[in-house]
Input
Amino acid sequence: MTLRITQSMLFTRALQDIRNSSRGILRAQEQVATGRRLNRPSDDPSAMLRLLPLRAELQDFANLTENTHLADETLNAAASALEEASSVMTRLQELLVQASNGTISTSDRKSVGVEVDQLLRHMVGIANSSRGGSSLFGGTRTESAPFQLVEVDGRAHVAYRGASERHEIEVAPGVSTTLYAPGNQYFQRTDRSATTITGTTGAKSAGAHDTGSGYATLDVTFAQLDPTTLPSGITPGSGIANSTAVGPLSFAFTAAPASLSIGGGPPLAVPVLNGEFRTANGDTLYLDVATPVSPATGTLLGEADLSTDLGKTVTRVDFSTSPVAVRDSLDDSVLHVDVSTLQRTGSDVVTFHGTFDVFTALIAVRDTLQNPGNLSADESQLRLQSLIDEVSNAHDAILTGLQEVGIRGSNLELLRSRLDNLIASDTDNLSNIEDADLAETISEMTQKQFNFEASLQVSARIVQTSLLQFLR
Amino acid sequence: MSFGIGLNAGLKALAAARYGIETAGQNVANANTPGYSRQRLIQASAYPFWVNGGLQVGTGVEVSDIRRLVDEGIERRLRLQLGIHGSAEVDFARWSELESSLNEPAGGLSNNFTDLFGSLSKLQTQPSSRALRGGVVQEGSSLAQAMNELTRRLSDIERGSLTEIKGYVREINEHAEAVAKLNDQIAVAENGNGGSANDMRDARERHIKEISRLADVRVLERSSGAVDLQIDGTLLVAGNRASKLAASQGDDGKSMLTLAGSDVELSPSGGRLHGLLRHEKTEIPALRAKFDRLAHNLALEFNRIHTTGVPLAGYYESSLGANAVQDLNGNGVLGDDLLSRSGLPFDITAGEVYLSVTDKESGEIEQTRIAIDPDSMSLQDVADAISAVANMQASVDPAGRLRVRASSGYGFDFSPRLDPNPDSLGTFGGVQPSHASSSSGPFTLTVPSTLRITVDGSNYDVNFTASQFANPAAATVDEVVDAIQSNTAFANVGMATNVGGRLVIRSNSSGSGATLGLSQPGPGTPLTDLTLPTPPNTVNGQDRGVNVKIGGSFTGEQNGGFTFVADGAGTIGVTSGLTISVYDADGTKVATLDAGPETKLLDNSPIEVADGVTLQLGPGSLTQGQVFHVATVADSDTSDLLVAVGLNSFFHGSDAGDIRVNPDLATSPSLLAASLDGDQGNAANLDRLLSLREHALGSLDDSSIEDFYGDIVGEVGFEAAGAEALIYAEDELLTSVQAQRDSVSGVNLDEEMIELVKYQQAFEAASRFINTVNELTETLINLGR
Output
């Protein structure tokens, strides 16, 4: 259809065009002013759907970056604590070399012992170090000091009271790092091997799984004569408790002249009160003997008490079962003893090989130097020399820990650069989605402005034109 | 022929030219009057008369009408377009309003979500920090408040609609009144004299268009020239009578449009009223429902995790539910309604709840399973079940909320943690001698039969009879336990119990001197039937029992338990070949642990058994078959009971309008359940809360909480963008229809100028004609002189 054009149409059209152009200019101006292409969801709803998760992810990454800083600081604190522990161990090694030199006097040894005692307490302090109120070496139990020095009757033991779970935080998407590790990994890392029992009693390690650590003393004392094994005529003498022979002991009674031999030892004239009978091995047994002894031959059983905690808890040995588990009340550890060759009382040294952790080594060195058990000078010398290796092993455990912390630190470095890359690429993506391309927006705006001005001019021109101007 | 005829024709021509000039003048004058239709002079030559029997002589011009130039079809389309445009205008305004309520991407809920999860992740680094805990509570509150605020804004918009609608109704009523009045006048003016009441019709059309903009009307013209108007099939104007529209609040709280005095609801299908009603009744409620769903599921999922966590102290001492049951059965008693019909804001399903009671002094934990069936249990039954647990009290308070309290010296929680010391009865290498069945029930037991239990040399005969069992051929462990315990003489010196589905008989006396033996003196062979060891089977107790320590955290997905069974007799760490078998809840063997000389179980560091559960043993001896059980809980509340009653929840409320953070958490942030095992550095529950961020939730159309929110934003964005595009399109269309109307009815000044010139010339010509006739007449008169 042919359209009649009327004046009001011209005006309406002009108005509509001006409105459209100014709307475009407004939009362009908003984009330039905010620098953003997306100022409300309706600007580009589908871009909005990508924008929100991307922003959340970026925020996540920012949190993770913060976590890496925290982990970094904590790792640094742990590393410096371990370095300090390592220097304590170096000092201990120096002192040990100095003390194991045969020329050092007993009093000098004691004063070195005092220094080692201070090192021990310092080491416990290091292991309990904390940062911002959280223990560095307590695993997830961050609120309390993880290591506790327990001293009873001059015997010391360091117990781990921390958690066995690592306290971990996320440092990259899906990657966690340990913030607080269980400290027994560093300070009590051991590689247990066989236990040895050295001494004169004849007790042997059963080769079972023992749980003690460092050095221990196995005390074997005479308990009693098994009454069921006593023939008529033989009763324990008044000094029976001083007897040194334990285990099955053969006896032989000779009627004339009346004499009794124990354990193949020299015969003693009987009857006798509290007679000191010696076995072929030289161990003693105090017996009251009346004649006649019947039966004339047989086997007595000297029962023994075993203890590893200075007699606080004793385990009675009746030689019917072997091995025997001996429990230490101090640290609740267990030593399994093969008693099949046990033959005399005495104190044996138990060495839990491979279990010298930092604390055990310090305690062993201190105790050897201060010598509460009155070991002979030679014995002390020997023990100090054997401890040099153990101390060096314990030191190695600290150094390994230090290395591990270092590796974690460099991993963190890698993770952080990965995180930075992720942040950079997300920021790029985000910018692509929401940021206005200024050059483009401004040129667009200029173009719209041009359109606007053009439409104003054209409108102005058209509405002026009318027949009226030509009719006079 | 007379000169009179000529003068007459001249006179008519003069009049016609004058009418033409006046019509053009009217058109020019109204060129800018809205709704004005240009008018045209309709003229025709007058009838001729005959002279000399055949010759016809014209008698000039006749003006027959001054007519409006109107195309009724275009007018109808314009009215329709005005309605569509009005509706689109409202649509655009509403969606822009809703869109700006969301305040995205600058500062909407998306930031609150990010901040909340960010604060959780920060707390993860130092779970015991009071300040960081406060941060989580703060961010949670901000999120809840933002949701409340959003809901409030949406309901404000929704409620504001009625006021707007009432305003439009008043406008419509005024216009309808005017149409009715004009109808009357037009009918009077046009009836009988055949002319058309042009300007009144224009005015009426203007009123009708105003109505069309607000609500679409159907226009029916009667033969009298009057029009009837219909809205949604109901007469608004009939001839000279106009009815009144009325807007009121309906029973559903939403606006209702009726004719005054009628209760039939009208729903116009176009116009602003249409847009307003559609938004109020459909779009805004749908949007609000989505936010309610988001808030409901946020609270549900957050609380599911939070209610089963452990606070900083390692336990709760007392707790009061946030949600009260209602007395729906109307008997005046609160708490006796079945859980499925008690008006709680979250649904409870059949399942189980694990309650852990901690002895603060010893740190000993006792875990109890409470079965929940919403179709047979009331809240009071739940309280009773909790009270039945040692050192726990629970009640329904006068308001209908569940109150749970631990006795002094004890604490409780509902976490899925592992019981670190599961062998509290000492049935696994304990100090008391014990025997266990080698398989789990049910057993095929012959009755009557007699089981002889010899405790420290004394015999106790337990007689099994048919009446003690539902079916002796399938005697359950619990039935056997009850039958043995019913021998009170034995119950004083020993006990029978169910450990992980196995029958355990234990003496009460301890130490290496204590003995326990089992025999079957007849009748029957209960030892064989119950898979207990046959004689000789006398076992001794020991002076120090085996210390059992469970650690780690269960990573499996099903609630169940591990049963640990000694495969032989011997000393842990000594006897070669000694092993311990581990069975899961289905009886499948999941691990065999070496307890011989090479065992690691005695070491400082715990050994993982399966699914994250670790075991450490102390030294001691085991008897073949000895057993202990540890419950492995993946979800310690499969019933959602805790969420429904609001016990130790993070969020209170259940929709976007009433969601808020548990006020107890704001006053004491240490109640925030960050841990799963009570260690202050344990952040396992925070891990669970954080993983919620990635979880696709079935209740949210398989999207995560944030994605669901993002979808809402996207949807509103799409709607707003669509509404914007639509309003521009409708604008163009309206302009184009208006242009069409203008092209028919509008005034073109140039045209009118030409008309003016035309009629001016005609006037001059007619004057000349009259002059000529006059001169001729004068000549004739002078002839006669």
